[in-house]
Amino acid sequence: MGVLDHVSEMFDCSHGHKIKNRRQLQTVEIKVKMDCEGCERKVRRSVEGMKGVSSVSLEPKAHKVTVVGYVEPHKVVSRMAHRTGKKVEIWPYVPYDVVAHPYANGVYDKKAPSGYVRRADDPGVSQLARASSTEVRYTTAFSDENPAACVVM
To answer: Does position 67 have pLDDT exceeding 50, yes or no?
Structure first.
């Protein structure tokens, strides 16, 4: 901390005032269905005029809109839904490599673009590989590696 910062803090008269937090630069990815060029134009114009938006890019084949700027994601989604009248949601997909079990129930989605699967926030899906103690007991009871396994096998 420099001398000027120290002196300015000593003579600062704004102790009772709240300092407004500055928004951070964010990238918001949104899923919205776009069939034609008119839909693309409508989606782009719904967000371009919004305060804080730096750039808008569209991927019509993936039904994906990427908005970069000093904006809040829920405000972008609500404005786009209101202005276009379309179903709008935060981009629900993650790359295929990120998920431990991409073909698990609730993660695999036929409608997802190639290379992507649905984001799994459910802890039951992430714990898919872990078997319960009763399952382990039954599977090891009839295993070939277990010398005390059932003789009937």
So the answer is: yes
**pTM score, two decimals?**
0.60
pLDDT at site 133: 60
Place of tokens 């990427």: 66
Question: What are the angstrom distances between the C-alpha of 76 and each of 9, 88, 90, 92, 94?
Answer: 37, 10, 10, 16, 20
Identify the pLDDT of residue 149.
Answer: 63
